[in-house]
Design goal:
GO terms for molecular function: DNA binding. InterPro entries: Cro/C1-type_HTH, Lambda_DNA-bd_dom_sf. This is Transcriptional regulator. It is a single chain. This protein has 74 residues and is mainly alpha-helical. The protein has a single domain, classed as Orthogonal Bundle (434 Repressor (Amino-terminal Domain)), CATH 1.10.260.40. Strands 1-2 form a two-stranded antiparallel ribbon. The longest helix is centred in the last third of the chain and has 11 residues.
Length: 74
């Protein structure tokens, strides 16, 4: 299973740079990069709240789950 972070898509839709977004959310551009590159092991709800507030979106607009290939649900 993989959790995909679609921040690039959301930032592009809104014409926001990583720096502008990081300032608005209140975290460092380096931490934005960790999220965007899928290297984050966790996201605090306060950070997710700030991301959604800044982008005026729902958590599902930023995060999505993709099942592993070849995994049987049975």
């Amino acid at each position: 299973m993989a959790i995909i972070v679609d921040l690039d898509l959301q930032l592009a839709k809104r014409g926001l740079s990583v720096g502008e977004f990081a300032d608005a959310v209140g975290i460092t551009p380096a931490n934005i990069a960790v999220l965007k590159n899928g290297r984050a092991k966790a996201v605090r709800f306060t950070t997710l709240d700030a991301i959604c507030r800044t982008l005026d979106c729902q958590p599902g607009d930023v995060l999505r789950w993709v099942p592993d290939e070849g995994v049987d649900d049975a």
